[in-house]
TrEMBL record:
Top-level taxon in the UniProt lineage: Bacteria
UniProt xrefs under SUPFAM superfamilies: YjgF-like (SSF55298)
Phylogenetic placement of the source organism: Bacteria, Bacillati, Actinomycetota, Actinomycetes, Kitasatosporales
Identification of the protein by name: RidA family protein
UniProt-listed Pfam families: YjgF_endoribonc
Domain Endoribonuclease L-PSP/chorismate mutase-like: 5-147
Entries under InterPro entries matching the protein: Endoribo_LPSP/chorism_mut-like (IPR013813), RutC-like_sf (IPR035959)
Length: 154
């Protein structure tokens, strides 16, 4: 077990299986020392636990928890191409999409769920640049989607 997976266990979390693609893409690809994940939905055991728009059917707090799930799924995707999460040198960028009700403006707080999880698990290596974007709809009516870019140790 890697040190990062041990840290996840210490937090009461486990690395899930990689979420299979919903269309024509790979969950993650490696280019040189970088790994780019596709957008990760908050799938748990192959299903979305909640659907709908944040600020309407889904609360901001629920969406923040779902963003944590997205980040955990992203780490699984990274491991699938990197082989070992301990090879992560740093998280470079996180992009989060929030399916938002028209008057919802709390996208940064929602995506904090992903950012905070990466910080808890990776410490200083989890500090990253980020975008948090409100959108009209996401695949499968998911409330949130997160993609992650990491740099690996050479």
């Amino acid at each position: 077990m890697s040190a990062i997976e041990a840290k996840l266990a210490e937090l009461g979390l486990a690395l899930p299986a990689v979420v299979p693609p919903l269309a024509a893409y790979q969950p993650a690809v490696r280019s040189g020392v970088y790994v780019y994940t596709s957008g990760q939905l908050p799938m748990v055991d192959g299903k979305l636990p909640v659907t709908g728009k944040v600020g309407a059917e889904v609360t901001a707090q629920e969406a923040k928890e779902l963003a944590r799930v997205c980040a955990l799924n992203a780490l699984a995707a990274v491991k699938s191409v990197a082989g070992d999460l301990d090879r992560i040198a740093r998280v470079v960028k996180v992009v989060g999409f929030v399916a938002s009700a028209p008057d919802f403006t709390g996208q940064p707080g929602v995506i904090n769920g992903a950012s905070e999880l990466l910080g808890e698990v990776l410490g200083d290596k989890g500090v990253h640049a980020r975008s948090a974007v409100g959108v009209a709809v996401l695949p499968l009516d998911a409330p949130v989607e997160v993609e992650v870019q990491v740099e690996l140790e050479p």
